[in-house]
Amino acid sequence: MADDGGDDPNINPFEGLPMFGDISRMLAGQGPLNWDAARQFAIMSATGADGLTGAGGVPIASANIDPTVRIKYAELASIARLHVADVMGIDVPDVDPSVATPEQWATQTLDAYRPLFTELATSLGTTDDESDVSDPMAQMMAGLSKMMAPAMLGMAVGSMVGNLAHRAFGVYDLPIPRATPSLVLVPPTIDAFAAEWEISIDEMRLWVLAHELAGLTLFSIGHIADHLRDLVRRHVGAFRPDPSAVTDKLTSLDTDQSDPLAAMQQAFGDPEVLLGAVRSDEQLAMEPVLDAAVAVTIGVIDWVVDAVAVRIIGGNALQIAEAVRRRRAETSPDDLFVERLLGIRLGAEQTARGKAFVQGVVDRAGESGLAPLFNDPEAVPTPNEIEAPGLWLARVAPDEA
User: Fold this and answer.
1) Kind plus residue range of the DSSP H or E element containing 99
2) Is there a contact between 70 and 183 (Cβ–Cβ < 8 Å)?
């Protein structure tokens, strides 16, 4: 009986299958992540199913932003900047605001986080155990998964970023520091949200500017940005793929055998297939620390926005804050990808934890109580301190506790 070559890593399980053979040649040598796929899917997802379409149903990108809108944001930013600096007690970086369509935001975000996504792809492509798979179908699916991983990861990352662009008001909706500080607003999304909630456009713009300037200022503090950036990098670098577990997941899917292409789309569209079997003990161990860093980031930004918005907007500031936080509490499949790919858990729980910590500090020590966080690299709160702000104050500012 001939050897089926199941243990030979050089055997192509799709040899003799024309469609898979063509795919294999097309995807060969492209690196750990297909950036063309990432960019295309980011733009398609950002354009959205409800957007305009051209010939063949291809989405049409949003029109460029009117230059007068950028000028208006620049004027409002000068007002918000003074108040953010006063509330935080530190200088706000002198970065001019720019504007972008959702599609432009998506492509800029892909570029900004390209090193992070490349590290993620490299981590996901590292296999510690090439397990023997005797079932020919399972072997074919495992081989297909490995062969298509760069393209599928490109699609997943691109779709995630593109779908985030539907909701993003600016850069700091996703609380991950960028290498180059930026202040980018997405007017179509901001205007649509204001219209939905019957909020004055200028008031909504001021609120978003306060949020973005607070995020920009917080991440201009080296030890805060470095701490969160290092945690996210450690998370994406700690994936440990398990080929046999991924194969088990693929072969156990309840798919419609009458439509193999639909079955394949279901398989690779399931984040558990790409990620569910590969989380490592290291990632699970660092989850509380990363959660704490995200919670304090959200908490500080929200506290600054609330304080600034009351000054420059007045009574409607609370209405805007409540509307935004309701939207943030809504979960979607994209939140799962952000959580599983990057380790960033967003939503109501993290918002509440961060808000409780910051408010607890301010209640005990006044608005200046957060100063140690901004000025002392050793003052980053631990997971236990997030739940007990008095413990944090006792450690970093004993006189204020």
Assistant:
1) strand 98-99
2) no
